[in-house]
Fold this protein.
Amino acid sequence: MTNILLEKKGLYAVATINRPKALNALNSEVLQDLNELVDIVNADEEIRALVLTGSGEKSFVAGADIGEMSTLTKAEGEAFGKKGNDVFRKLETMPIPTIAAINGFALGGGCELSMSCDIRICADTAVFGQPEVGLGITPGFGGTQRLARLVSPGMAKQLIYTARNIKADEALRIGLVNAIYPAEELLAAAEKMADTIAKNAPIAVRACKKAINEGLDVTMDEAIVIEEKLFGSCFETADQVEGMGAFLEKRKHAPYQNK
């Protein structure tokens, strides 16, 4: 990966999109690196949570690379949208929890990237938006779909139709982010959350993610069956035996072994 830095920190990892001179804008190379990042993290059983952030103080990801997109044909535009959607969906459905630490601009593809993560927290300097209609296009990497699911269809339509940027406080108010931190405290807060998640029983955490994500796409009757099966599967794990045993014996559980 030439545009993403990956650092393992015990049971979690931090991935930093590293194109600061371009405000970490997404081009084909960055999308390919994101695809590779998911493969690398998925293959490493020691990583139980992932923090995703941007390099520099100004930008998480300022958007997709307009220069690259400006000359696309209809077919090329559709292919570029598919490439981004495939990568973001791959990130969204990876088994372990992901936290977006949004350290600045999260516009267009950057906002869409953050929405592909499980949890979003941001700096007080962060700015969000889907400005695509001001450029003559639609959001192309899932923005019309994930934003509507996260903040309500009406609010998503307002933000997308107006192409208006919003600041961190409004993003928190509408439910786009979970929390705001001073910029200098953001990454530490994200890492603390990742470490907390990583110390819980990892099979159970992954089962919770799967239950939530898959349950949202089906009826309630179907969703509770998904939960029941995942709930039952936990009783085959050593982590469940240790966790419940420690509770009943009134002691602190041993480190979970992911088995």
